Amino acid sequence: MNHYLEYKKRNDLEKKILKYDDSDLKDILIRNKNLIKEFSSLSSSEIDKKIKNINNTTITNLLINNIDISEINSELDKINKYEIKDIVKENFPLDEPRELQLETISKIYDAIEKGYKYIILEAVSGYGKSLIAATLSNIYSEEKSYFLTTTNQLANQYFYDFKKYDFVKMNPRSSFSCKKTPMKCSAYLCKYSKCRYYKYSDFNKDFDKPLSCEYLYSLKEILKSNSIICTYDFFINENFYHSNYFNTRKLLICDEAHNLDEKISESISLKINPKQFTEDMKLNIKKELQHINQNNDYYFYLLKFRTNYKNRLNNVKKGSALYIKLKKRIDDISKFMDNFKNNENMTFEVDSDNYWIFKPLKINKMADDSLLSYGDVSIFMSSSIFDLENFAFDLGIDKNKIYSIRVPNIFDLSKHKVEISPNFDMSGEPIETGTAEDCLPTIKKILKKHKHEKGVIHTFNYEQMKYIVSNIKNNRFITHDSENREKILENFKTSDKPLVLVSPSMNEGIDIPGDLCRFQIIFKLPYLPYENTWINKRKNLYEDGKEWYDYKMLTKLIQSYGRGIRFEEDYCKTYILDNRLFDKINEDLEDKEIIPKYFINSIENLNQNIE
């Protein structure tokens, strides 16, 4: 079987189908229901209901998977094509849009006008989802929008791309200086101290800039803008823990939305330094850690910490910086405990700085309170939201109220080939099992083949990154830590040398088009760390936890694959050093069919390695 020809035939039809209205496609499905076993005996209303209840599918997939392509083409030729709206053309930010982009935006616009509250746009990396967001923000400029991203770097990129369309970027509090103290802006100083700068920053009055809090003055000015860009961390944390100045707008546009559950959980996690309590609470940290890990009694420790803060407050001068800080911490712990009232809905971990992190597990209520309620319409954009049912479950939304669009791949697969090494099973920790050592000659061979080109090696963690650069002496390698990631990425982009960026955190949220990335090596399938308590508890929330775990890995894999090709003429070769992917593809083809066909058909050596 020629996978590329099969892909091209299917992809051409998917592009064609997008030009037609969903109601027309549903009529075609009903007229041909005898070709689909599960629909053949159903009435039209029963088919409509069944479509809504089938997980991870669309009318497009039902047609393509069950009806001969020539028959579908014949049916489509009998009806009128989907109409691109004039309002979409008028508000598109570039002079030469792709027709497919205009059709996609028109469908989203129609869904909004029909009253859909939740819209999912699933499109390949490089499709131009930010252009779609900009167009929609322009259309609804009078009713305003928020545009949320995963990283500050992405927020900066979108701001510079679209600032002429009245997009502004809101920076976090730590970007502002405090006029009362030599510290950076911090919410507890504003809220609890008698600060004259805070007083002159009343949101109900005009600000006097010289007398105003720098942060609040900036926030008030930015809230006048039609479209605000900021990170999830800032937006969610501000809404959950601090004074809330954000109002509901027409659009809440969520970029990289496949990470939304993790982003919400991380943003409202409670972080406490236990060293503050070693004397007051007679806290033996090592002993207490053993107890908390054995008994999972997180709520008990939150009570202990809050009680200790209250006791310390009685011995501190009112209005002092320490008094204000303690008051804020008491409020934060109380807020967290009010929303997560039992140990079953919390996890606990210790970070690299030895802070104790109390992290929520189920965030469906918080998703609405701290995020989704700030948009009349929420638009979720990603290249990899595979499991629509669990996505809706995580966010506490009715999946029947979701309008979902999955756009076909726009790129030429011959320019973005994938090669999976059949020799390496990377299950477990490859460094400990010795598999990493076996991979080294293959990595060296790939580096030699692309010796004049820039590339990226995606690792699973920092330990693997360090192993590779320590055991392959190559002056092309460039690495980073958690503090200098953005600086190193910029150095990589601006250098004229054929550098190779070795990193555990470049699988999404970065743009490295053209000559910035001509090859990629994915060292290991990017499964979430199995030993992580949060991951294991999350798995238990689902009917099939293993399936959820696989989906999370596939999401990260497709995101990594998408870093290498960003526009239609672009090209990049991707090498995957983990043969377990063959089994995952085989399982998917037999049952689920959720892995994008463009990715499967890009694999050069697929036929020889699956059943």
TrEMBL record:
Write out the GO biological process terms. Answer: nucleobase-containing compound metabolic process
Domain Helicase ATP-binding span(s) in chain numbering: 93-327
Highest taxon in the source lineage: Archaea
**Which Gene Ontology molecular-function terms are recorded?**
ATP binding; DNA binding; DNA helicase activity; hydrolase activity, acting on acid anhydrides, in phosphorus-containing anhydrides
One Pfam family name from the record? ResIII
InterPro entries annotated for this entry? ATP-dep_Helicase_C (IPR006555), DinG/Rad3-like (IPR045028), Helicase/UvrB_N (IPR006935), Helicase_ATP-bd (IPR014001), P-loop_NTPase (IPR027417)
Which residue numbers delimit the ATP-dependent helicase C-terminal domain?
A: 462-583
List keywords of the entry alphabetically.
Answer: ATP-binding, Helicase, Hydrolase, Nucleotide-binding
Q: What is this protein called?
A: ATP-dependent DNA helicase
Organism whose genome encodes this protein: Methanobrevibacter millerae
Task: Write the lineage as a comma-separated list.
Answer: Archaea, Methanobacteriati, Methanobacteriota, Methanomada group, Methanobacteria
